[in-house]
Design goal:
With 260 residues, the protein is α+β, with helices and mostly antiparallel strands. Helices cover 30% and strands 29% of the residues. The chain is built from 6 helices and 11 strands. Strands 5-4-3-11-6 form a 5-stranded mixed beta sheet. The chain has a 4-stranded mixed beta sheet with strand order 7-8-9-10, covered by helices on one side. Strands 1-2 form a two-stranded antiparallel ribbon. A hairpin with a 2-residue loop joins strand 8 and strand 9. Helix 2 crosses helix 5.
Length: 260
């Protein structure tokens, strides 16, 4: 009988301790704090918070601004390696002259990543704001192929399309892959070399308004008789006027989405 009286008391005490522990404030994972800080400084659009801190797997809650396209909402990050977050990290590092790029082995170096995260949290405490607005590049490969750019207007917490143009993507055998990648390098003019799948090669010395986003693929100007269909060797080609405008909007870290 003694055991029957004591054990419920012990269980109740343990349950009470667990309940009180659950009521204590929990610390979010560092990448969630950094995401929220980047959004507060407008390196990301909208507002970012988190849910489920009392669980083993807290997750990011993204409050998207008015006018956010559905295709952009589909990119809501669920991990610190999402292209939106990686792009924001790249842009912050570029602005601050930090030796960082998510396209290098630095992403796998925990010490480098912690140093970058600490710099972001410090910048938020100082009240920093991103020097250029968040923009997103959206390319559709359904013909006529197009490129559009969406800008986040932080004072209004809203977004608008600021550019639309016909575009060319890769031909069969050199298709522009579907996915989202942040811009990692930009050149007002550069040389491009390569060979098409059928064997014809090129060595173009003055390719203008170039924004590299993945594995040698770039958004850039290239002269064509017409635009709106697959013609490139994997890049996204634009007419001159549109390429010049796009180059002014795009910056390091800008996410580029290629969609069917």
């Amino acid at each position: 009988m003694a055991k029957r009286l004591i054990m419920p008391a012990v269980l109740l005490a343990a349950g009470a301790l667990q309940a009180r522990a659950a009521d204590l404030p929990q610390t979010p994972p560092l990448w969630l704090e950094v995401s929220s800080a980047l959004a507060a400084m407008h390196y990301l659009p909208g507002r970012v918070g988190w849910i489920g801190l009392q669980t083993q797997h807290p997750y990011l809650l993204w409050l998207w601004p008015k006018g956010t396209p559905a295709a952009l909402k589909n990119l809501t990050p669920g991990a610190p390696s999402s292209p939106l977050l990686l792009g924001a990290l790249d842009y912050f590092a570029y602005v601050h002259g930090l030796p960082w790029s998510n396209s290098s082995l630095q992403w796998d170096n925990q010490r480098n990543r912690r140093h970058l995260y600490a710099a972001i949290l410090s910048a938020q405490r100082r009240g920093e704001r991103a020097p250029k607005p968040f923009v997103w590049v959206y390319v559709r490969k359904s013909e006529p192929e197009t490129l559009r750019i969406w800008e986040y207007l932080s004072p209004d917490d809203a977004g608008v399309w600021v550019l639309k143009s016909l575009a060319n993507t890769g031909i069969r055998g050199a298709e522009t892959p579907n996915g989202t990648w942040p811009v990692y390098a930009r050149y007002s003019s550069t040389r491009m070399t390569g060979c098409f799948p059928h064997g014809e090669c090129y060595n173009d010395a003055d390719v203008r308004y170039v924004n590299y986003f993945w594995d040698g693929r770039a958004v850039h100007f290239f002269p064509r008789a017409v635009y709106g269909s697959p013609q490139s060797n994997g890049c996204v080609e634009l007419p001159l006027s549109a390429a010049k405008k796009a180059f002014a909007w795009i910056h390091i870290g800008t996410p580029v989405t290629i969609a069917p």
